[in-house]
Amino acid sequence: MSGRVEGKVVLVTGAARGMGRSHAVRLAEEGADLILVDICAPVDNVPYPMSAKEDLEETAAQVRALGRRVNAAVLDVRDGAQLAEFTAASASELGGLDAAVANAGVLTSGTWDTTTGDDWRAVLDINLIGVWNTCVAAIPHLLERGGGSLVNISSAAGIKGNPLTTPYTASKHGVVGLSKSLANELALNSIRVNTVHPTGVVTGMSAPAMHELIAGERQDLGPIYQNAMPVPVIDAVDVSNAVLYLVSDESRYVTGTELTVDAGVTIR
Ligand SMILES: NC(=O)c1ccc[n+]([C@@H]2O[C@H](COP(=O)([O-])OP(=O)(O)OC[C@H]3O[C@@H](n4cnc5c(N)ncnc54)[C@H](O)[C@@H]3O)[C@@H](O)[C@H]2O)c1
Q1: Fold of 9-267
Q2: Residue 1: which pLDDT band, with cuts at 50, 70 and 90?
Q3: Which residues on neighbouring strands pair with residue 36, listed in sequence order?
Q4: Which residue among 203, 211, 231 has the greatest number of ligand 1 atoms within 8 angstroms of its CB, and so is best to mutate?
Q5: Which of 24, 52, 66, 199 is most buried, judging by how many CB atoms fall within 10 Å of its CB?
Q6: Does residue 48 carry a catalytic annotation?
Q7: pLDDT digits over 200-209, tens only?
Q8: 34 CA to middle of ligand 1, Å?
Q9: Which of 176, 169, 78, 79 is nearest to 125 (CA)?
Q10: Domain boundaries in the chain?
Q11: Which has the closest alpha carbon to 131: 77, 198, 82?
Q12: CA 14 to ligand 1 centroid distance, Å
């Protein structure tokens, strides 16, 4: 039986663990070949560990086990030139590129008076310029194909004013503006650009300062993070199914949308 993205080649950033791994595996299950990148190293100013090289190798192994081809590299999405170079080399090896999922992201948290300029720069550099670099690395190959799909991972924080994570919230709103702007510019070329907005998923990403504040002196802010549906968090695969839809031709006339997968947190 043919898969929903059979024969497509898809770039996924931040693919070593968490939702990036889930997107890669779900796309491979439906017949895609994958180009995978991840920094696999700590990021300054981010208070939790990033993935390791072994994690990226594990994602690649899971894709291969599904009978799909994979090219993986340890690479920082802040380095646009390196990302473009690896994407081009991989596209040429795998027979082109059909879509990119800009998934790599980081999170800092804390009150306004503990948030530093370096926090801002770390988060915007990865969550916003890193997404831009991913789009720019992919676009020449999508043009060559005569069309394609850019899926940029935002967050419920890209729609709501999520507090105690100001740089993150701003970066995820920025992903929406970036994506809608590009969607207009590239519609003529049949390149679709959409954002995905998940609610909380248990991954390696964490916000210790925010959790401490919400459990303690800022309990008033807790309800902003509460899903409308009766689940505290959703599964990574719930988000991957939305990514799969946007990569597939089932969404061939869907562009410039904000696809929420959020158990209703953004309607609260
Ligand atoms: N977990 C959640 O609750 C949640 C909710 C909404 C949106 N998101 C978004 O989903 C995406 C995936 O997050 P996750 O929860 O799987 O987090 P995660 O921390 O488990 O995974 C993120 C991956 O990105 C990699 N990465 C970080 N900086 C990088 C860089 N500069 N270059 C390349 N790779 C880099 C990390 O090494 C890690 O493997 C992020 O964009 C995140 O903001 C997460």
Answers
A1: Rossmann fold (3.40.50)
A2: low
A3: 12, 72
A4: 203
A5: 24
A6: no
A7: 999 999 999 9
A8: 18
A9: 78
A10: 9-267
A11: 77
A12: 6
